[in-house]
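W.,

You were right to be curious about this one. When I first looked at the sequence I had no strong expectations either way, so I just let the prediction run and decided to look at it fresh. Below is the sequence, 403 residues in total, followed by the output.
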Amino acid sequence: MLGPIGNGLEFVVRGGSAPFLLGLRWAKLAVERQASETASLGLPSPRHTLALASKVALDEIFLATEFVSATLVSLRDRGRLAQEMGQALDLFEQRGWLDDPAAYHLTPWPPTWTQMDNAGSLGIAYRHMRFESEYEPHAGEPGRDRWLGYRPNQTAHAWLLEHAGEPRPWLVCIPGYRMGHPRVDFTGFRARWLHETLGLNVAIPVLPLHGPRRVGRRGGDGFLSGDFVDTVHAQAQAVWDVRRLIAWLKKEGAPAVGVHGVSLGGHTTVLVASLEHDLDCVIAGIPAIDFLRLATALVPSFVMNGAQRLGFAMEPLETLLRVISPLAFPPSVPRERRYLYAGLADRLASPDHARDLWHHWEKPRVAWYEGTHVSFLWESAVETLLHEALHTCGLLEAKQQTA
């Protein structure tokens, strides 16, 4: 779930080789364990190489920095959390949203007001787009007033890289956890390659509570902090904002729109592809599709055991998250427009997330690469799949026709 650049890379670069070597010492054992796990999933087993051990070490270092610096909900709030979760479950059941999660998500309209500012980062010129999100939790939902009180989060932001002249296809790139800054997002999505080499227009929305929308010490604080009612609102708003951005692009004359998300953005991408039937291409990269499974795998067991002793049982939490669970929604975009890539040694969003999505998506084109969560940035298999998806779905051909 971590952003591939925004959390931990500077720690490694500026901290010298010691953290990396420390991670590398036991990365070999992690690779061996991962090979056994992927084999049990019916996936190819990654080879035991120094290159792969290095990639695993980077994943583990990034994960360690998140554990050290993460902001979690206070134990003082446990009474409120339990009460809100119970109220939400009752409300979701009464309104039929647990049986029909899609009904929980309203269809947004294009923003009527936008602000555009010219800017640049990493030598890339872009427009900084702002518009009012206008997302609101449903009337009567627990935590509604608190959520609406996060004032910076009520303004949506996006980075737009657009070619002058005739309209070109847009690729909406949805960032991962802790991303949300141009420098990080442009690197994580190889924006220069997409925009200048392939000739696409690129739109990168900022997720709720991230970047300029943050309400905590760091971007992302509050999204996955243990307050699961806020997590539902955060992801529901992420889907709403992305759909509003897509509606605006189409209103402005976009000849085609594709969506590509990574990590947490992969989770959002799958939900968007379940609610928007006329997307031209959907690519889920290193997706984390189950928040509770992610927490169980990554959070120390004593923390999870403590949460259960405080009354936060896994089954009610899983039910609560159903309204934002990608596996609870049938895909709306045709199978031939769905694409997926994932690392066989991913230490953050483990391969079982992508495998389950692959089955749920009716086994579309998938690229399994011998790498990790972070290494997707330089994996040739990822670049090949992206180019294939954009070509097969017609975005590159549409670009050539309008160029």
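Here's what jumped out at me. DSSP finds 15 helices and nine strands in the chain. And, maybe more interesting for your project: Residues 369 and 381 are 6 Å apart (CA to CA).

Coffee later to discuss?

I.
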